[in-house]
């Protein structure tokens, strides 16, 4: 945009907002450059050139520089910014660029530090290896390898995005930013950037593609520090971007091939000479063949190579006929050779056709064992290597890897494939994968060496059965494929997950699986649809959650997979089957409500600042979020990876807007509006401060055509026009109160705004005047939007959502909500409307059908307010942001699933629940808001529907207590003590007398009394056998009381104040209680939280902040003995089986002094719930070893552990129940070494930052491993360890 107010400025150096320190890379990072380079996961092949005859490539280079127009092309001072070589298939492009690269490497070594070379050769080895992101990553890797002083740019991006790896194809955005920063750095030494076959980079779906890469090349050509050397087959798509500035020299080998023919002739004669010796030809036969070839037109290196292969396959007396039979044209040549395969004897044509079709449809080369598995060619049957030899004209096998001799051979065969090729491939891949996993008897622990070799045959199948299934146009007519996929996911999911873990392919498969669901939703009908879609969604959610555990510091991948399975929705067929079969030590596991099944991706972390607003970019690849910490973040919508952080505001970012042209506007509490232009080619956002307004900016919005930007601040709207000379905003006045929301109509002719006064204003865009006012809300309007397809306006206020006719101002529909409507979003088609609803009791998102205004879906909300909702541009999913710093992506509602939204609303509130468990662990009770729910400790299932309590008698204390006979529960409700009978045999009993909040209440050992303490500085002893309110005793002290406990014999009563414990002792004559003094714990900032008597009544144990203190009753002047913990105990009690351990809400704690929480718990209570201090998360542990991870999405408020039963009470009103076997312990996994699970490679585990030494490895990587996996020398972090390939 050359005119108007848009003038982008360079933001490579950004000043951090107040209180935010941007970077001091040397202080922030202790990582070595070597470690960061390993984290880039670049393939080993970038360290060498393609396997091309070096002599021939050098000759081709010599011929190249002998051309008059090319002699100065590699002289840095004289050469253009870009050398572009183009030619048809097999004309020598790769050979020429290899020769150039080798010569440049020699020159660079002779002139160290003068200039450098960074290169990437696209080779059809696999989709992940030749994506635009992979190409860019290779170039960055080589630049930083040679110039480590530039590594700070990679460091900076890692810190700003909180990421170590950039392995996804969509990371092109982040990598482009790193690349741009590097080439703009003044310290960069002149560098050649060489990319061969750049137009053959792999692109799929919405991922960045060839055009994105070429935009980066064209944009970066202006840098004086780099020069590009690229080759392509095509010219039409690439020419405009490269030739527009005149800095590119184009060498078309199709037009300038004759000067290079001498190198071709020498190459052919050299190969014929080798063939003569190998085949035993006579010398005159060699001359005849050479003469025959020289008489033919120059057809290129590929043509000559195929002739040599044909001669290799013929007997000597037919050799002279070969040059005469072979056509000159490459396409005709392939057709001729394909026809010859059809004339092979017996069944060879069929098997060769199967091999060729499989290789043509596959996205990458295959290992021989993979190809055999896919074709089901088993030992003793047709040997696949024999079939490969029969296909010599198209295929070759090197080190066990089958590939095409040239990309053009694959292109030809791909054009001849039958229409059902993808269907056949998908079915074969599923069958091969299922057979292998079943035959290997793959368990979720570790694989034996034999199983490793079997798994090598499923590497392609484990990922790309999804991709091929997604390409089947008539999928609805292929129920056998639907059945195969459903059966595979239902029965072999965990084994499949193991294979994906080993190859680090979970992220890729997760993206593919979601794309498959979207595809099937459109294509399938009837039973096919209902059969497979729930299973695919189930599997996708499991994979998404599994990904979220990657940074959880799991002891190893086994427990990561276990945690994944435990938190799948309760009705999951996959989950039920997997746990019962593979984890026999878990007897009961949580029932996760379906409400959590709708979230498939979570961005951010709960510890981040509030996310105030979100906005999708037009292509749906990215989503922007604005936060309370003044930062705008840019996320990838497929992987959830953070791509960019935009700094500029110095206060809350309140609102965002994205134009159809990709401009991003942000409004802040700092009174500024900023506009950011995303320059995709260089992965950067250029920004300018658009304007300073009188007050905080509450809303911004672009017009649909991108010509106008409007912002709401105070009582006025401020509007700018793009493409005009005016830089000043036009002010639209007319509101009497602050404006909270503004929007354009779908055609841009109208503007709607609303705010504090509850009045909707409709403006004419052209005249900037008010057309009408709509008065229909009784409270401030929080949000207002136009329908994207109709003249309808939706508005949301406190407890109300309304839909209006924009032309007449009449009310069309109205809906009363149970909370404030904070945000609204129409789906792109306008048929659905999403609401973010929030009150003191409700946190959820609801989706309505516009036609009927009936709720389609009520989506689980966060425990803190939902601030914003937005549909993706394609309408496939909904995003919501919340106060807790996260962004959730929700599945499109499934019409087959009916959701009880009222039940969901009941479950969301802010107050902490109350959790209780019987001493034997047989029953668990959770008090949440006005309800109480019971769970069976044996099965982990709810015993009954929630019992409603009236508003005046809700539980207000954390630790309600079961009676000794398990028949009743006591809890406090404000200033009332309540006894609840779960069986319903008696009504709720209330004891009145306290004048302030009841903090704790307990039953006496004989079950005859209840003791309670309160903020009113009294304790009361209630007689349960008396009628009505019950007679009671009152114990008064001089401070508020927080806990109460009876001794086991019932003779002592302890009352806990802030720092003191008050004792009463029962007197036999006259019957009653006498004050027995007090024990001071000491002056602490944190009050006493729990109290318990030792079984012999000689000691009192006090729980407070991260400590247990032991008090001696008989020696009260003695200082308490302190036991330090990693958690704060909420409750204390003793188990009859031992006096050496005290039981806490987190499990058994040893009383041996000196003691620590790391001492192993007893055999009869081995499980605990402990925090992980490194990552601020919780685990269930077995003898202090982490076994079950508690995810952030299911964070609990209270825990209760009894022996082998663990209960976690959640604010939502749910309990996560676990019961473990007393006979089967969690398996112990050896950590010194783990098998790689692919080929015959072994992966050693070495400390972070160290590389495994080759001499210490048992067996080096096979050729198969090198071919596919050297790109990932660092595999997975495991308790501060890295798996690395030996010798890599």
Structure notes:
By secondary structure, this protein is of the alpha+beta class. It is 25% helix and 30% strand. The chain contains 29 helices and 68 strands. The strands form 17 sheets. The protein has a six-stranded antiparallel sheet with strand order 27-28-29-30-31-32. Helix 15 crosses helix 17, helix 21 packs parallel to helix 24 and helix 24 runs antiparallel to helix 25. It is globular. The chain starts with 24 loop residues before the first helix and ends with a strand. The N terminus and C terminus are likely disordered.
Secondary-structure blueprint:
Blueprint: H1 25-28, H2 33-39, H3 54-66, E1 82-86, H4 93-110, E2 116-121, H5 132-146, H6 152-161, H7 172-184, E3 191-196, H8 210-220, E4 226-232, H9 239-243, E5 248-252, H10 261-279, H11 283-294, H12 301-313, H13 321-325, H14 330-341, H15 348-361, E6 366-367, H16 368-374, H17 384-390, E7 395-398, E8 401-404, H18 407-415, H19 421-439, H20 449-456, H21 461-469, H22 479-491, H23 493-503, H24 506-523, H25 526-548, H26 557-566, H27 573-582, E9 586-588, E10 599-604, E11 611-616, E12 622-627, E13 632-636, E14 642-646, E15 653-658, E16 663-668, E17 672-679, E18 684-692, E19 697-702, E20 708-713, E21 716-721, E22 730-732, E23 739-744, E24 750-755, E25 759-764, E26 769-775, E27 781-786, E28 792-805, E29 811-826, E30 832-838, E31 843-849, E32 855-860, E33 866-871, E34 878-882, E35 886-890, H28 901-906, E36 914-917, E37 923-928, E38 931-936, E39 947-948, E40 961-962, E41 969-973, E42 976-980, E43 989-992, E44 998-1003, E45 1009-1014, E46 1018-1023, E47 1032-1036, E48 1043-1046, E49 1052-1056, E50 1060-1067, E51 1072-1080, E52 1090-1093, ...
Parallel strand pairs: 1-4, 1-5, 2-3, 3-4
Antiparallel strand pairs: 6-8, 7-8, 9-64, 10-35, 11-12, 12-13, 13-14, 15-16, 16-17, 17-18, 19-20, 20-21, 21-22, 23-24, 24-25, 25-26, 27-28, 28-29, 29-30, 30-31, 31-32, 33-34, 34-35, 36-37, 37-38, 38-39, 40-41, 41-42, 42-43, 44-45, 45-46, 46-47, 48-49, 49-50, 50-51, 52-53, 53-54, 54-55, 56-57, 57-58, ...
Helix pairs in contact: 3-4, 3-10, 5-7, 10-11, 10-12, 15-17, 15-18, 19-21, 19-22, 21-24, 22-25, 23-26, 24-25, 25-26
């Amino acid at each position: 945009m050359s005119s108007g107010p848009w003038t982008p400025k360079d933001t490579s150096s950004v000043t951090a907002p107040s209180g935010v320190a941007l970077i001091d890379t040397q202080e922030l990072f202790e990582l070595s450059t070597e470690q960061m380079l390993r984290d880039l996961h670049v393939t080993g092949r970038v360290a060498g050139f393609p396997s091309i005859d070096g002599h021939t490539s050098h000759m081709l280079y010599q011929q190249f520089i002998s051309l008059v127009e090319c002699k100065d092309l590699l002289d840095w001072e004289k050469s253009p910014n870009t050398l572009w070589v183009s030619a048809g298939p097999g004309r020598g492009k790769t050979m020429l660029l290899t020769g150039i690269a080798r010569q440049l490497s020699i020159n660079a070594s002779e002139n160290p530090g003068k200039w450098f070379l960074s290169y990437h050769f696209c080779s059809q080895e696999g989709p992940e290896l030749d994506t635009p992101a992979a190409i860019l990553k290779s170039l960055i890797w080589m630049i930083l390898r040679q110039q480590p002083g530039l590594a700070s740019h990679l460091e900076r991006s890692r810190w700003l995005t909180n990421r170590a790896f950039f392995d996804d194809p969509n990371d092109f955005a982040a990598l482009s930013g790193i690349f741009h920063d590097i080439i703009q750095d003044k310290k960069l030494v002149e560098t050649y950037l060489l990319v061969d076959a750049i137009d053959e980079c792999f692109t799929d779906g919405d991922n960045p593609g060839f055009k994105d890469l070429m935009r980066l090349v064209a944009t970066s050509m202006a840098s004086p520090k780099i020069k590009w050397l690229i080759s392509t087959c095509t010219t039409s798509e690439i020419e405009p971007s490269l030739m527009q500035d005149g800095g590119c020299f184009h060498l078309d080998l199709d037009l300038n091939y004759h000067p290079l023919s001498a190198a071709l002739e020498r190459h052919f004669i050299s190969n014929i000479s080798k063939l003569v010796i190998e085949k035993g030809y006579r010398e005159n036969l060699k001359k005849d063949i050479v003469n025959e070839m020289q008489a033919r037109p120059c057809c290129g290196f590929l043509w000559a190579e195929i002739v040599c292969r044909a001669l290799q396959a013929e007997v000597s007396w037919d050799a002279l006929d070969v040059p005469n039979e072979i056509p000159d044209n490459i396409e005709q040549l392939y057709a001729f050779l394909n026809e010859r395969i059809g004339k092979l004897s017996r069944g060879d044509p069929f098997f060769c056709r199967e091999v060729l079709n499989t290789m043509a449809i596959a996205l990458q080369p295959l290992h021989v064992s993979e190809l055999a598995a896919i074709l089901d060619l088993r030992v003793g049957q047709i040997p696949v290597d024999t079939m490969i030899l029969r296909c010599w004209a198209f295929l070759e096998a090197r080190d066990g890897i089958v590939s095409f001799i040239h990309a053009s051979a694959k292109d030809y065969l791909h054009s001849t494939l039958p229409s059902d090729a993808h269907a056949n491939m998908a079915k074969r891949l599923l069958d091969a994968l299922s057979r292998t996993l079943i035959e290997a008897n793959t368990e979720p622990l570790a694989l034996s060496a034999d199983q490793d070799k079997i798994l090598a045959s499923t590497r392609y199948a484990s990922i790309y059965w999804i991709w091929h299934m997604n390409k089947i146009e008539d999928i609805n007519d292929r129920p056998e494929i639907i059945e195969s996929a459903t059966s595979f996911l239902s029965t072999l999911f965990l084994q499949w997950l193991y294979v994906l873990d080993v190859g680090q392919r979970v992220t890729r498969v997760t993206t593919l699986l979601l794309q498959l669901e979207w595809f099937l939703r459109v294509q399938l009908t009837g039973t096919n649809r209902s059969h497979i879609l729930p299973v695919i969604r189930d599997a996708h959610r499991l994979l998404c959650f599994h990904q979220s555990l990657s940074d959880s510091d799991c002891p190893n991948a086994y427990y990561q997979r276990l945690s994944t399975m435990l938190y799948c929705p309760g009705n999951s067929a996959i989950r039920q089957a997997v746990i019962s079969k593979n984890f026999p030590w878990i007897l009961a596991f949580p029932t996760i409500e379906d409400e959590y099944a709708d979230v498939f991706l979570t961005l951010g972390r709960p510890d981040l600042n509030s996310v105030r607003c979100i906005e999708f970019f037009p292509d749906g690849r990215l989503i922007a979020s604005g936060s309370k910490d003044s930062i705008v973040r840019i996320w990838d919508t497929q992987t959830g990876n953070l791509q960019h952080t935009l700094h500029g505001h110095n206060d809350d970012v309140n609102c965002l807007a994205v134009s159809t042209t990709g401009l991003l506007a942000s409004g802040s509490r700092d009174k500024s509006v900023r506009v950011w232009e995303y320059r995709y080619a260089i992965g950067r956002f250029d920004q300018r401060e658009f304007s300073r307004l009188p007050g905080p900016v509450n809303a911004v919005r672009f017009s649909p055509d991108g010509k106008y930007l409007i912002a709401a601040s105070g009582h006025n709207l401020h509007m700018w026009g793009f493409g005009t000379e005016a830089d000043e905003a036009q002010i639209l006045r007319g509101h009497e109160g602050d404006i909270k929301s503004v929007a354009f109509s779908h055609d841009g002719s109208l503007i709607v705004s609303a705010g504090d006064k509850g009045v909707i204003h409709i403006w004419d865009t052209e005249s900037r005047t008010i057309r009408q006012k709509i008065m229909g809300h009784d409270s401030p309007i929080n949000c207002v939007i136009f329908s994207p397809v109709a003249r309808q306006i939706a508005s949301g206020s406190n407890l109300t959502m309304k839909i209006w006719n924009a032309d007449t101002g009449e009310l069309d529909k109205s809906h009363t909500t149970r909370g404030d409507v904070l945000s609204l979003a129409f789906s792109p088609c306008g048929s659905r409307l999403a609401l973010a609803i929030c009150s003191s009791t409700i946190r959820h998102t609801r989706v309505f059908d516009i036609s009927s205004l009936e709720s389609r879906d009520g989506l689980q909300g966060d425990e803190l307010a939902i601030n914003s909702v937005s549909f993706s541009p394609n309408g496939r999913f909904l995003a919501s942001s919340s106060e807790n710093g996260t962004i959730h992506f929700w599945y499109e509602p499934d019409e087959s699933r009916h959701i009880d939204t009222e039940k969901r609303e009941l479950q969301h509130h802010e107050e902490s629940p109350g959790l209780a468990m019987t001493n034997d662990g047989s029953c668990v009770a959770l008090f949440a808001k006005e309800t109480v729910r019971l769970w069976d400790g044996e099965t982990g299932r709810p015993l009954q529907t929630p019992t409603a309590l009236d508003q005046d008698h809700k539980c207000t204390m954390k630790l309600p207590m079961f009676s000794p006979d398990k028949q009743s529960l006591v809890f406090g409700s404000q200033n009332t003590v309540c006894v609840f009978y779960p069986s319903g045999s008696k009504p709720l009993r209330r004891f009145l007398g306290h004048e302030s909040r009841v903090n704790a209440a307990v039953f006496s050992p004989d079950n005859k009394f209840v003791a309670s303490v309160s903020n009113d500085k009294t304790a009361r002893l209630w007689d349960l056998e008396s009628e009505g309110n019950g007679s009671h005793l009152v114990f008064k002290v001089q401070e508020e009381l927080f806990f109460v406990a009876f001794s086991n014999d019932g003779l002592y009563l302890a009352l806990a104040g802030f720092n003191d414990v008050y004792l009463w002792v029962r007197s036999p004559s006259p019957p009653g209680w006498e004050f027995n003094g007090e024990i001071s714990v000491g002056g602490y900032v944190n009050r006493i939280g729990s109290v318990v008597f030792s079984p012999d009544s000689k000691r009192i144990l006090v729980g407070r902040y991260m400590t247990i203190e032991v008090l001696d009753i008989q020696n009260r002047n003695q200082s308490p003995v302190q036991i330090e913990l990693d958690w704060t105990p909420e409750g204390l009690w003793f188990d009859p089986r031992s006096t050496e351990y005290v039981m806490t809400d987190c499990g058994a704690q040893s009383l041996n002094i000196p003691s620590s929480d790391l001492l192993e718990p007893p055999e009869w209570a081995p499980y605990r719930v402990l925090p992980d201090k490194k990552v601020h998360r919780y685990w269930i542990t077995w003898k202090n070893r982490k076994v079950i991870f508690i995810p952030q999405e299911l964070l609990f408020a209270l825990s209760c552990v009894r022996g082998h039963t663990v209960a976690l009470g959640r604010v939502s009103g749910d309990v996560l129940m676990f019961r473990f076997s007393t006979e089967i312990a969690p398996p112990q996994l050896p950590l010194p070494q783990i098998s790689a699970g692919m080929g015959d490679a072994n992966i050693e585990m070495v400390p972070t930052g160290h590389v495994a030494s080759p001499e210490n490895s048992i067996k080096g990587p096979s050729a198969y491993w090198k071919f596919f996996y050297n790109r990932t020398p660092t595999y997975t972090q495991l308790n501060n360890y890295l798996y690395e390939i030996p010798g890599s």
